[in-house]
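note to self: dont lose this again. the chain is below, predicted strucutre after it. 276 aa total, dont forget to put it in the shared folder this time
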Amino acid sequence: MTCVERLQKILSQAGIASRRASEQLILDGRVSVNGKVVRELGTKADAAVDTIKVDDRRLKKAGRHRYVLLHKPRGYMTTRSDPERRPTVIDLLSGVREYIYPVGRLDFDSEGLLLLTNDGDLAAKLTHPSHGVARVYEAEVLGIPDAHDLERLSRGVTIEGRRTQPAQLEVLSGKDERHARVRITIREGRNRQVRNMFDAVGHPVDRLKRVAIGSLRDARLKPGHWRDLTVSEVAALRRTADTPRPPKPAPREQPNEASTAAAPARPRARSKRAPR
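---
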């Protein structure tokens, strides 16, 4: 039985890299199928029949899937390698022999929960906006956001010409007169999104920590420590990723000029520690 799939999906399922990183491998000309270098993202192949190579090494099917939950400290890159030789989250995973990769982003200056795996299907579902998997952050921000700021953030703000999706917010405390701690839940993963959202309402983030990914939480996991997910945690995460996202409500229709003119006038009324 043949199983023809997109090449980036095959690479991801084999644990080579995330689907997005696999696309970049293809664009960089590092992938070949039956001896021919492939550079087009729409290319399909059959992993059981075709000879697929990455950097001239033949693709092997991934062994058992591995799911690692890491509390990423500040000062680490969320990537397998960094051209500038900055420390990466992989440096914290001593003892993990499988080729696993980060699911989603957590920027250099942020900390908190990060999932790493070689399960390409689950990784793709967790990161694709259409699945709307919740990510919960606690942010220490400059100033005390008022009701208007929280309403703007909850509705969505425009970042780089594109509006963010609705978010849930809760002010946990005012640390002092100049700072507040705010919990924010978002369902998309744009680059530095939480920081950019608070910048947009005039409350820059001093410190940012991710405390939940979908159903995953672990308040006892210390910075720099990691552990494997339990079978029940993986099952719950799959259920979360597979749950269809509710459709967005239809926008209200705005009356056109003709209907406005025809309407009768109304009377006026009066938000595991890794060894160094």
